[in-house]
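Below is how a single chain appears once it has passed through the pipeline. First comes the sequence as given, then the structure the pipeline wrote out for it. We keep one example in the README because the format questions we get most often are answered faster by looking than by reading.
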Amino acid sequence: MKSKMKKFLYLFIITSLVFTSCSKNENVTPDATASILIKKIIKNRGSSVEVEYFKYDGNKLVTISNGTNFIATYTYTGNVITRIEELVDNKFQQSMDYTYFDGKLATSVLTRNYGGTISYTYNYNTNGTVSYQESNSGSISSGILTLTNGNVVKNDVLSPTMVTYTYEYDAKNNPFKNILGFTLLINEDKMYSPNNLTVDNRNYGTNYKFKYDANGFPTERQEFDASGNPRDSYQYFY
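Resulting structure:
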């Protein structure tokens, strides 16, 4: 009798574990948008129209080009971007080199074709902010970036003069969100934020309005100046 009871309890425990495991697996919902990558952007800038094409190796960005004379090449080391180099008519224009520490951006160095470099160092504070220092031809400036959900929402410039810039975002997907390594490149460039910049108070109160697809990625972006006048517009293709 005891032997039968032990067998029953054993089968009950095994069945319960299998059921629990299956239930947990069934409750895991994969992100159906994780594989969505931007393929093309059409930029309408007044009387000119620019087109950018994106080429990938998996979800690593290989190049951005206009199909004619401009190309930006992305170099990865492992899963992080370590260099971006831009050429126009096969001539070097500028490059950005990145280093990392503990999985976070540590330094970036901008080198331009007309000489001179701008270097940045980043330090991560216990309160979640990021302190930075910029060195530009011997001139040093510094500040503190405040991030919310990976988006830079405030830049407190501390030197050489004190000024604060603020930014606002929507809750939708940035077109570049799924490009490997992009969200590690923290700065005020809207390319690298997880969501879409809607108000840029650094740029005289520039506003951006979007149209989205069913997956929450923008299909169109319209830029407005501080007076509400329309300026550049973008179309996004995935």
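The chain has one helix and 16 strands.

See the next section for the split statistics.
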